[in-house]
Amino acid sequence: MAKINLKGMGVALVTPFKDDCSIDFNALGKLIDFQIQNSADYIVMLGTTAETPTLSDKEKKKIKEFVIQRVNRRVPLVMGLGGNNTMDIVKHLKEDDFDGVDAILSVVPYYNKPSQEGIYQHYKAIAKASKLPIILYNVPGRSGVNMTADTTLRLARDFNNIVAIKEASGNITQMDDIIKNKPKDFDVISGDDGITFPLITLGAIGVISVIGNAFPKEFSRMVRLALAGDYRNALTIHHRFTELFDLLFIDGNPAGVKSILNVMGYIDNQLRLPLVPTRITTFEKIRSVLRELNILC
């Protein structure tokens, strides 16, 4: 199993849509190039921010093939592959072509609300089926259940191909517990832009970012400065984006970052139902903040 370097800023790529809700591959290609040209360390495709639950299997395959070709090995590529049907995930891992993909990001099963033992057995089945490194993804605000530090550490110790966790529990004590007690070769990645800076000071290696879609250069610089121990300059950049962190998620993800990308001229402000664009009031606040940041005239 090849080792993947997850240090720095990965971008949780959005899926641009046209007015008719079809996938805008032209905008997607430009967005990928924008990320890579502006210092994103790796790309994450088909994650939560990509509105994956609203994509058909055929569309996911097309996006996967397109992104692999467009990235063209310029940076590592992580693919989201998770759900609440363990057998289906295992089937995909055994049968699908993952050439060009460097790691799998797999979310804690949602809606079912499994026990901690159920979560462990779910990931055990995935680890045994996968030829690629696996990044766990704990996001209880979406999945409805929190994977505890004990379960995370148990998985990290038991399976060599479980190499990292994207932690978005919002529980700093839990994250610190994982960082303090994890195996040496297991990494903790922030799953929340707003706490990336403090989490790096505790020992995290970076972030899988939403705001990085719009500000890859600026946010990756913050991450690199923090990782280098230059906390003063990193904190300056962190504070520059504090208001945007809140606006990004007030109307749901990826509505916030899509509105930013729309204001910046990269994509249409289009989501697939049941998601809808940000409210006009939020949209105007975002425009105001972007003006203050000298992003807009």
Q: Which structural traits does this protein have?
A:
alpha/beta; TIM Barrel
Description:
This protein is of the alpha/beta class and 297 residues long. The protein has one domain (8-230): Aldolase class I (TIM Barrel), CATH 3.20.20.70. Helices cover 45% and strands 12% of the residues. The chain has 13 helices and eight strands. The protein has helices at residues 25-37, 57-71, 86-95, 116-129, 140-143, 149-158, 172-181, 196-202, 216-227, 231-240, 242-249, 255-263, 280-292; strands spanning 8-12, 42-45, 77-80, 103-107, 134-138, 162-167, 187-190, 206-209. Strands 7-6-5-4-3-2-1-8 form an eight-stranded parallel β-sheet. Strand 6, helix 7 and strand 7 form a beta-alpha-beta unit. Helix 3 packs parallel to helix 4 and helix 9 (216-227) runs antiparallel to helix 10. The radius of gyration is 18 Å and the shape is globular. The mean pLDDT is 95.
Order of secondary-structure elements: EHEHEHEHEHHEHEHEHHHHH
Mean pLDDT: 95
**In CATH terms, what is the architecture?**
Alpha-Beta Barrel
Which stretches are poorly predicted, pLDDT < 50 over at least 5 residues? none
Number of separate strands: 8
Shape: globular
Q: Give the class from helix and strand content and strand pairing.
A: alpha/beta
CATH topology annotation: TIM Barrel
Q: Describe the sheet with the most strands.
A: 8 strands, parallel
Give the helix proportion (percent range).
40-55%
What fraction of the residues are assigned to beta strands by DSSP?
5-15%
Helix count from the secondary structure assignment: 13
Name the CATH homologous superfamily: Aldolase class I
Termini separation comes to: 49 Å
Radius of gyration: 18 Å
Can you list the strand order of the major beta sheet?
7-6-5-4-3-2-1-8
Number of domains: 1
CATH class: Alpha Beta
